[in-house]
Specification:
12 helices
C-alpha cells in the first residue's frame, strides 16, 4: 500500500476520529483477539456498506473493552468477517445478495502473488457446466492452456472435456475440494460428447501444480481482411506487473498501422483499476486528461474527498505509464469479445469507454461486478509496513463502486452484448483463428460481411463457474494505490 494511502488512514484515525473505541485510556485488544480487532477496525473505516451494517456503526462500541467483548464471540476470524458483510452471497440467495466479492485470507503472501497472476497452477484454465438440467453433477472443459505450465507438456488442449478428478465425478459439493485442494497432483478423467451426452472415454491426464506466472497476453496478432488490418489481443488478466508488455503489444499494433481492434476479454476476470485505465488509454489516445471512470466510496470517506479534493476520485485517461509513453492506437471504435466470465476490470474498460468511443460487444452477458477492493493488512495504517508478525491474515473488502464519466455504473446483472453469441463445446476453435466463432463474427462486422443476425449453434450447457471465479483472488477489481491529490490536502 502506498504512502498516500497510509496518510488517508492516519487522517481518518487521528483527525476525524472515526472509530469511537480508540480511547487512549482504554485497554488494547489482547493477543488472541488481534486478528478480530483488525477485521472490525478495517471494515469500520473502509467497507463500502459500513453504514448498512449495525455492528460496524461508529457508535456501536464505546470502549475497546466493549469491542473486545463482542469480538470474543467469534473464535474464527473468517466467521466474524462474514458476519460483518452486508448481505453476503454465502448467506443470502443470489436474488438478494449484495456483497458477492469481499473476502479474507490467512496468508497475504499467496494473496499478493495471485493478484499479480502468480498462482499454484497446473496450467489448465477451464470452465465448469452442469452435466444436464437440474443435475448436481458437473463437467469441465478446457478453455486454454497456460504456456510454460505442466499442462503445456501434456496431451490436453482447448476443447477437451473432463468429468472427474482421480476417478471421482465432479459435483456441486466436491468440485472445490477436488480442483482446489491442497494436493498438487491430480488426474483429470476425460470424456467424449455423443449426441449431447458425456461418455467417459477411458483417457486421463496426470497434472502437477507449480508456482506459475501467467502472462495475460495470450494472443497478439494482426489479421488482414480485405482493406482492414485488424489488431487482435486476447488479454486474460489485468496484472499490473505486465503493463509494460501490454504497452509493447500496442506498440506492435501501432507500428503495423492497424485500422481496427478486437479486444478479447472473454476469460478475463479483472484485476488492477490502474491497468484498466492504461488499457483504455492505449486503445484511444485522444482523451488524455479526460475522465475515464469515477470512484464512489462509503459516506465517511466520500464526504472528505468531496470537501477537500474531489478530483482524487477520478481516473483519467493518460499518455504516460510511469516515465514511459503510452503507445496508443487512436481507435474511435473497438470490438470487445465477452463471456459470463468477463468481470470487474474487464467490465470497467467496456463501461468506461462507452461515453467516448463506439464499443461493439460480442459474446455473452458479463458477470456484473461494478465494485472494487483494496488489500488491508493488520498494521497501524492497514498498509504493508509494520504488519503484525503474529499472523498473516489480510482482507480484500469492497471499498468502492465505480462509474463511467457520465455516472453510469449500475450493471450488477452484467453488460449486455451488442451481438449475442455464446461459446459452445461443439464450436470451439483455435483462439486467434479467423474461423473461431466470436472472432469470426467481429471480423465480419468490421468488414461488413457478417450476417445481420447471428445465432449460437451447437451444444449448449448452462454455465456454472470457471477456474478463475472459483478462486476469488483471480476475480477482482482492485486499487493499486490511493487516488492522487489527497497528499496536497493534508500538507
Amino acid at each position: 500500500m502506498t504512502t498516500k494511502f497510509k496518510l488517508i488512514i492516519i487522517f481518518f484515525l487521528v483527525a476525524l476520529g472515526l472509530q469511537s473505541c480508540q480511547d487512549n485510556d482504554d485497554v488494547a485488544a489482547p493477543v488472541n483477539l488481534e486478528v478480530n480487532d483488525f477485521i472490525w477496525k478495517g471494515l469500520n473505516l473502509y467497507y463500502l456498506w459500513q453504514a448498512d451494517v449495525p455492528n460496524l456503526s461508529d457508535n456501536k462500541f464505546e470502549t475497546q473493552a466493549k469491542l473486545n467483548n463482542f469480538l470474543t464471540g467469534y473464535p474464527k476470524p473468517e466467521n466474524l468477517f462474514e458476519s460483518l458483510l452486508y448481505k453476503p452471497e454465502s448467506l443470502y440467495p443470489a436474488t438478494e445478495a449484495v456483497d458477492r466479492f469481499s473476502w479474507i485470507v490467512d496468508d497475504y503472501l499467496e494473496l499478493e502473488g495471485q493478484l499479480q497472476g502468480t498462482t499454484n497452477n497446473n496450467g489448465v484454465e477451464f470452465g465448469l457446466s452442469y452435466k444436464s438440467q437440474n443435475s448436481s453433477e458437473l463437467i469441465g472443459w478446457v478453455r486454454y492452456i497456460i504456456p510454460n505450465s505442466d499442462a503445456a507438456t501434456k496431451n490436453i488442449k482447448r476443447g477437451d472435456v473432463f468429468y472427474g478428478v482421480n476417478g471421482t465425478q465432479l459435483t456441486l459439493s466436491n468440485y472445490q475440494a477436488l480442483l482446489l485442494g491442497s494436493n498438487n497432483d491430480y488426474t483429470l478423467n476425460m470424456a467424449d460428447i455423443n449426441g449431447g451426452a458425456f461418455t467417459p472415454n477411458g483417457k486421463s491426464v496426470a497434472l502437477t501444480k507449480t508456482v506459475l506466472d501467467e502472462n495475460p497476453i495470450l494472443v497478439n496478432k494482426v489479421i488482414v481482411a480485405g482493406s482492414h488490418k485488424i489488431g487482435y489481443l486476447m488479454y486474460n488478466g489485468f496484472y499490473a506487473n505486465y503493463d509494460t508488455q501490454l504497452n509493447d503489444a500496442f506498440g506492435v499494433f501501432k507500428s503495423q498501422g492497424i485500422t481496427d481492434l478486437v479486444l478479447d476479454l472473454r476469460y478475463n476476470g479483472g484485476g488492477s483499476i490502474q491497468t484498466a485505465t492504461r488499457l483504455a488509454s492505449m486503445i484511444t489516445g485522444q482523451f488524455t486528461g479526460q475522465v475515464f471512470a469515477k470512484q464512489q466510496w462509503n459516506a465517511k470517506i466520500e464526504s472528505y474527498f468531496a470537501a477537500n479534493d474531489p478530483e482524487s476520485l477520478k481516473n483519467l485517461f493518460t499518455d504516460k505509464m510511469g516515465t514511459a509513453s503510452i503507445k496508443s492506437v487512436g481507435m474511435t471504435k473497438v470490438y470487445i469479445l465477452t463471456s459470463a466470465s468477463s468481470a470487474s476490470a474487464s467490465e470497467l474498460v467496456i463501461n468506461g469507454l462507452k461515453p467516448h468511443i463506439a464499443v461493439v460487444q460480442i459474446g455473452d452477458v458479463t458477470t456484473g461486478k461494478n465494485v472494487g477492493s483494496v488489500t488491508l493488512y493488520d498494521s497501524p495504517t492497514f498498509g504493508k509496513e509494520n504488519r503484525n508478525p503474529n499472523h498473516r491474515y489480510a482482507m480484500q473488502p469492497l471499498v468502492l463502486k465505480i462509474v463511467n464519466s457520465v455516472g453510469f455504473g449500475d450493471y450488477q446483472s452484467g453488460l449486455e452484448p451488442t451481438f449475442k453469441l455464446k461459446e459452445t463445446l461443439s464450436t470451439l476453435d483455435v483462439l486467434g483463428s479467423s474461423t473461431e466463432p466470436l472472432l469470426n463474427l467481429a471480423i465480419g462486422k468490421i468488414t461488413g460481411t457478417a450476417k445481420t443476425k447471428q445465432s449460437t449453434p451447437g451444444l449448449q450447457f448452462e454455465n456454472f463457474k470457471d477456474s478463475k471465479s472459483i478462486n476469488s483472488m483471480q476475480n477482482q477489481m482492485y486499487l493499486n494505490k490511493a487516488p492522487e491529490g489527497l497528499l496536497k490536502a493534508l500538507e
